[in-house]
Structure formats: C-alpha cells, structure tokens
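Troubleshooting log. The previous structure file for this entry was overwritten by mistake, so regenerating from the original sequence record. Sequence copied from the archived sheet and checked twice against the printout by T.R.
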Amino acid sequence: MEAVLGFGRMKAVVAALLPLLMLNVNFAPAAAKPSDIDFYKWKKLDPAIQPGTLLRYRPMPLLMFYRAKAWRILYMTRDYAARPIVSSGMVVLSGYANKSPELRDTVAWAHPTPGIARKCAPSLRQSPTESIPGFNELIHAGYTIAATDYPGLGTRDPIGYLVGAGQGQAAIDSIRAAKQIPEVLGSGRYAL
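Regenerated output below.
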C-alpha cells in the first residue's frame, strides 16, 4: 500500500505546523492561586513540635524540561530567640537523584534579599526556581534542593529580616523538613 504523503512531504508539513502548535502551549508555570495562599496559613503554633518538623507539603508546578518534581512546604523552625515559628519554602527533587534515597544529598538554598512583602517569598513566585543560581547544574548533578522562604514571607509570622540566627535555623530546618516527604527522603549530608 502506498502512503498518501511521502516522507519528505510529511516532514515539510510537520515543520510548517510545529511553530503554530507551539504558539498555543504555555511553558511557564502558573502563578500562585488563592488555594496556594491558604496553604501558608497555620494556626496551631505548638511549642512541643520540634524544629524541622514538616507540617504540610503540596506538589507545585515546575517546568517539564527540568526533569524534577517540586513541593511547597510548611515546617516548624525557631526564630533568633529560639521561639517556635512556622516557615515556608520549597523542595525540588532531581529526576537524576540517586535511586537509593539514603544516598541523596541536599543543597539548602538561602535566598538573598528580595524584599519583605509576602509576594517576595520565592515559593510563591511564578517561576520560583529561576532565582536559584546554578539550579540547572544542581538538578543535573542529582541534588535535592531545599529552599526556605524564611519565616514571615510566605507565612504571616513576624519577619526576621536580616537576622542571621533565625534565617540560618530556617535554612537548616528546611533540610530536615524535606527529608520527611516520602518521595524525597535523603542522606543527611547537605551543603548550604
């Protein structure tokens, strides 16, 4: 049976239609929705909950070509005076990660100063991973990334703006929280 279109002609048709098909595809992840904002609310501030305890997590959109999965997280940490406080952030698991969870290492990313408004929380941005230097290289190397928002950016708690002790604690506790996501787990080895 003879094909209706020859291979060369089919290639030309596909080449002509491909740009038109791509115009209708949105490659950017969606910005945070109101239901995402509700995710950041936490009323039960129990001092008995240990720092680094994962309170909740939810998958978040990530561009397909990263070969990774991402989650928004809410976790317990401590402020500069060691008082309990809730922080938010995100966790990204590389598609290149070691298949043995106990061998997966984590890089904790502590963001620079984007501002102190709630919308400045990296996990609430439309493209949350774009501001992480070396993100592509870290994912390709198989690292898990734990990225804290710090208390008060995604959450409504007091902001410890430029207070190193509380922000450092939030970065380390984000690693502990990330390891509690069943799909992520991890080795316990990390870099900041």
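Helices lie at 7-23, 34-39, 135-140, 164-178. Archived copy saved in two places this time.
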